[in-house]
């Protein structure tokens, strides 16, 4: 093993995720650090890559399965495997501007819009570093919050936050992927961006291959360890946000077609940048609608991120409410109503807010007792899917949940769950109770029984099976497995980067 100041090792512990709903006994946790955390260098990147490759080789020699994770944000158990090793990369948070000579002459993206980000950098740091007055760039999209690390966000596919942009992995131009014996810089052949000399600075070999890139975008931790990614940014912009309470019937065209005429939005002559509708399935009468319009950002604008702390008081409130509902199921309507009133009220004192993306999608503190599951459906099927899910809710009416609709364009990732053109992601969000879990299961069953095309968010609660994954992804399953064999030609290494879950859903063929 490497020196303890670079890799912290804990043996035989219980691995717990960010939301406290997954607990897995593991043989070893390895927290990896850069040699000099405050001084980002390419030589340091090569040294850290070698360190990660050494861990992979040690895991192969020990005959154990290995998973990499960042901020442990997933509601699912994808980042951990029982009795295996977990490599925690949250301390690997270097970022780099790109030199003009490192960009390929054929690149359609200028160096000003390119930003190299190490795997453990969380989205909040990326926003703050991009959105400075001097750099004046921004991400086009993110998740609903920014506590995830970049490798985790793209590895399971967050749903995105802009209706005309794909999920976050669609903004990735290149990926550094490590195995025991390979250090690869992978780009799509259709969109070259960096030079072979740039890849060499990372100690990597340049690979331009559409299939390998598309497979690596949403890798589920099964292709190796993602060490860094090249992000495409855009010019800094502001989002004008407002919350409205709109009758559900008035939102039909917006929900099913993203046609905002007659929708009751603040400016029906403009297409919003972000559109989200939250519904209480016990009533389905009002759509608690968040809309954001994009505006240019003045050069002198100063950001005030004011990110929340993970130790913020009150983070156990959902768990306490969940415990009360388990004892008194009749409290469901009261608890849900209180949450809606506190979180989704119209701010009459501040009806419009202008903020950078990094200020808008702020850090979400850990929420013990929260449940979340995401179903992506084709846009034309949104209200049909909502009705199917509402009927499932009527079977489990004590579930303290809301339905949330959010939109993204089709992702280029081979196994991205936002695979429709475009996709609406309907989340079941709420308090983690037995009724909530039963509802999530029944909703999937009812959608299947109705013949509804859908996929589920890999990083949230789900009931994925081999049949359901095959039904949702079709031939992409075979193509992904074929590429996986090319990237991991050794069967023992493929098994090391697998897990019982991946085996069960047919992603270790």
UniProtKB/TrEMBL annotation:
<keyword id="KW-0285">Flavoprotein</keyword>
<dbReference type="InterPro" id="IPR016169">
    <property type="entry name" value="FAD-bd_PCMH_sub2"/>
</dbReference>
<dbReference type="InterPro" id="IPR036318">
    <property type="entry name" value="FAD-bd_PCMH-like_sf"/>
</dbReference>
<dbReference type="InterPro" id="IPR006094">
    <property type="entry name" value="Oxid_FAD_bind_N"/>
</dbReference>
<dbReference type="Pfam" id="PF01565">
    <property type="entry name" value="FAD_binding_4"/>
</dbReference>
<feature type="domain" description="FAD-binding PCMH-type">
    <location>
        <begin position="33"/>
        <end position="236"/>
    </location>
</feature>
<dbReference type="InterPro" id="IPR010031">
    <property type="entry name" value="FAD_lactone_oxidase-like"/>
</dbReference>
<keyword id="KW-0274">FAD</keyword>
<dbReference type="InterPro" id="IPR016166">
    <property type="entry name" value="FAD-bd_PCMH"/>
</dbReference>
<protein>
    <submittedName>
        <fullName>FAD-binding protein</fullName>
    </submittedName>
</protein>
């Amino acid at each position: 093993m490497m020196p303890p100041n670079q890799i912290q090792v804990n043996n035989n512990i219980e691995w717990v995720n960010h939301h406290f709903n997954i607990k897995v006994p593991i043989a070893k946790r390895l927290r990896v650090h850069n040699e000099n955390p405050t001084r980002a260098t390419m030589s340091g990147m090569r040294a850290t890559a070698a360190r990660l490759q050494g861990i992979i080789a040690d895991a192969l020699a020990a005959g154990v399965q290995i998973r990499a994770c960042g901020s442990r944000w997933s509601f699912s158990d994808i980042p951990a495997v029982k009795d295996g090793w977990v490599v925690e990369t949250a301390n690997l948070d270097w970022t780099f501007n790109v030199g003009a000579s490192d960009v390929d002459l054929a690149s359609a993206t200028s160096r000003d819009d390119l930003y190299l980000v190490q795997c453990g950098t969380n989205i909040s740091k990326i926003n703050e570093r991009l959105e400075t007055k001097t750099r004046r760039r921004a991400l086009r999209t993110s998740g609903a919050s920014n506590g995830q690390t970049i490798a985790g966000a793209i590895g399971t596919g967050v749903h995105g936050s802009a209706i005309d942009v794909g999920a976050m992995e669609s903004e990735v131009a290149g990926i550094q992927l490590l195995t025991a014996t390979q250090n690869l810089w992978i780009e799509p052949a259709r969109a070259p961006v960096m030079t072979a000399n740039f890849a060499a600075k990372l100690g990597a070999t340049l690979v331009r291959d559409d299939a390998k890139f598309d497979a690596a975008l949403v890798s589920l931790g099964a292709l190796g360890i993602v060490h860094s990614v090249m992000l495409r940014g855009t010019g800094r912009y502001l989002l004008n946000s407002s919350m409205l309470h709109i009758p559900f019937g008035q939102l039909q065209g917006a929900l099913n077609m993203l046609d905002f005429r007659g929708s009751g939005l603040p400016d029906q002559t403009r297409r919003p940048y972000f559109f989200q509708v939250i519904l209480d399935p016990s009533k389905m009468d009002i759509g608690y609608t968040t809309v954001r319009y994009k505006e240019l950002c003045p050069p002198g604008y100063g950001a005030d991120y004011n990110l929340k702390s993970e130790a913020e008081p009150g983070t156990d409130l959902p768990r306490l409410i969940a415990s009360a509902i388990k004892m008194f199921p009749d409290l469901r309507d009261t608890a849900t109503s209180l949450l809606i009133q506190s979180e989704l009220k119209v701010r009459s004192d501040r009806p419009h807010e202008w903020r950078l993306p990094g200020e808008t999608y702020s850090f979400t503190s850990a929420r013990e007792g929260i449940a979340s599951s995401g179903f992506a459906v084709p846009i034309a099927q949104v209200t049909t899917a909502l009705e199917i899910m509402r009927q499932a809710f009527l079977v489990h009416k004590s579930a303290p949940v809301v339905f949330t609709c959010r939109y993204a364009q089709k992702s280029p990732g081979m196994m991205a769950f936002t695979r429709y053109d475009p996709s609406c992601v309907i989340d079941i969000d709420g308090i983690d109770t037995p009724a909530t879990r039963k509802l999530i299961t029944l909703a999937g069953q009812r959608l299947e029984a109705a013949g509804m095309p859908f996929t589920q968010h890999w990083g949230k609660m789900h009931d994925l099976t081999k049949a359901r994954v095959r039904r949702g992804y079709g031939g992409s399953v075979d193509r992904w497995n074929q590429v996986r064999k090319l990237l991991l030609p050794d069967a023992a290494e493929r098994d090391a980067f697998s897990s019982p879950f991946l085996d069960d859903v047919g992603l270790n063929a």
